[in-house]
Design goal:
2 domains, alpha/beta, 19% strand, Rossmann fold
Length: 329
């Protein structure tokens, strides 16, 4: 039997930690679901979940000690992502981490009550995740990748790296909700720069190989890779084909350049997962996604793979190398 003094001590401890009291009432450890859009042994995926775990640890959360993290891996497969989104919701997590548009949208279709923190999403308003950036209003909030206008910057940088480019193949992802906005921005920039633009669908390896081979038959071609869930899964193939057909290319994220792509310009994706841990922490402590503003990147990184440039016979202008955030030699 608990004495009066011990009861008061326990009651005081519970009052000092509302979340601990709620966890005791539910008789289980707090649970975080995580729907990732890659495969678990992909280096890019490992760096993201590592950053997320480190961010949580800095805030006092340790997987298996005082929180449980349940991962599901979509591998760029829309059907699998839908299935895992429903599965994670049925596990009744306290909050779910969503990696990219392809994971965030199915999760919100599966639940309008479980809090969702997204990272690496293109346009959360356009795909219906939030009502506004300042006041999300629903059960989701998080971190944006970029605004669509970045598509114009990709084309400008490609032209600077490879001045002879007069034709550009835009690798678009038809199933990605926000991809059309990126393509539209590139198309507008192409018209201003006098560059002929073609669209190449990223659907399956065979389609990509055939379309790239056809595009490369004419000279002075270059490639712009847009952002979307299938791209990372097919990046090795796309980078290999770009090298085979001697096409200068720019990609939206650093991991393309570190995998052998010529160049990349985009946000710090890894940092977004560390920041996402902060929002997860705040939600676990009682805040609501509706009150946490969506954040846009504060900085974009230019990465140039000099080894690939040399293989393509390109002399990257020294001023461009000087302002690059990273040069891979």
């Amino acid at each position: 039997m608990i004495g009066r003094r011990e009861f008061i001590r326990l009651l005081g401890a519970a009052a000092a930690s509302p979340f601990a009291a709620r966890a005791q009432q539910s008789n289980r450890m707090p649970r975080i679901g995580a729907l990732m859009n890659l495969i678990p042994d992909d280096p890019a995926a490992l760096s993201r979940v590592t950053a997320f775990a480190q961010g949580l640890q800095e805030l006092g959360w340790s997987d298996g000690r005082n929180v449980q993290i349940v991962y599901r891996w979509g591998a760029g497969d829309d059907g699998r992502v839908q299935e895992y989104a429903t599965e994670l919701v049925t596990l009744a997590p306290d909050v779910i981490l969503a990696s990219g548009d392809g994971a965030a949208a199915p999760l919100q279709q599966a639940t309008r009550t479980v809090p969702i923190v997204f990272a690496n999403v293109g346009d959360p308003i356009a795909i219906g995740l939030v009502e506004s950036l300042a006041r999300p209003g629903g059960n989701a909030t998080g971190f944006m990748n970029f605004e669509y206008g970045l598509g114009a910057k990709w084309l400008e940088l490609l032209k600077e790296i490879a001045p002879r480019v007069t034709r550009v193949g835009v690798l678009r992802i038809p199933t990605s909700p926000g991809n059309s906005g990126q393509v539209g921005a590139i198309q507008a920039a192409a018209a201003l720069l006098g560059i002929e633009m073609s669209q190449i669908d990223v659907r399956d390896p065979g389609t990509i190989e055939r379309q790239l081979a056809t595009f490369a038959r004419s000279p002075n071609g270059g490639l712009v890779m847009t952002a979307g869930p299938q791209g990372p899964m097919l990046r090795d193939l796309i980078i290999t084909l770009a090298a085979r057909h001697r096409l200068a290319a720019i990609y939206p994220f650093r991991f393309y350049a570190t995998s052998g792509g010529l160049s990349s310009y985009g946000p710090d994706q890894i940092g977004q997962f560390r920041l996402a841990a902060g929002y997860v922490d705040r939600i676990l402590k009682g805040e609501k996604p509706a009150d946490l503003p969506v954040q846009a990147p504060a900085k974009y990184e230019l990465v140039i793979n000099l080894k690939t440039a040399k293989a393509l016979g390109l002399d990257v202008p020294p001023p461009m190398l000087a302002r690059a955030d990273e040069v891979i030699e």
